[in-house]
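Record type: monomer structure entry
Structure origin: computed from sequence
Chain ID: A
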Amino acid sequence: MCFQRVTLNTLGGRGAGGFHGLRQRGDPCQLWREHVLASDLVDPHSLIVADFTGDGLPDICVIEMDFTDYPQMILFVNRGGGRFETHVVDEGAGSHDARLIHINDTLAIVGKPFTGKHLGEVHLWMLRRQHH
């Protein structure tokens, strides 16, 4: 059995981990090639796929949990052709199982820490688009 046009993304377990994707090489029944987007993440636990940049391509947001002093929210901006640009968009507040929401037609992410100094808080990250 094989699957067609399936993208698989995996996150590391507790401790240091990475963010990997698999890309098919034409025939989806053949072995896929691994594409490492990041290999130095600390307990990445939230994974959100959405078009954050408004260019029609799915971008990837990963948020580390609070097992480090400065957990990061990282946005992998899709540049097409399997290329992604990495941006740290927030640092210091991790999240456990964050979710994508819409507020007045604006993308936002809501999450809560699993442990640490922000335990008991609910965080809201709202997308701010730059106007030209």
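Annotation 1: Confidence is low (pLDDT under 50) at residues 1-16.
Annotation 2: The CA atoms of residues 98 and 111 lie 4 Å apart.
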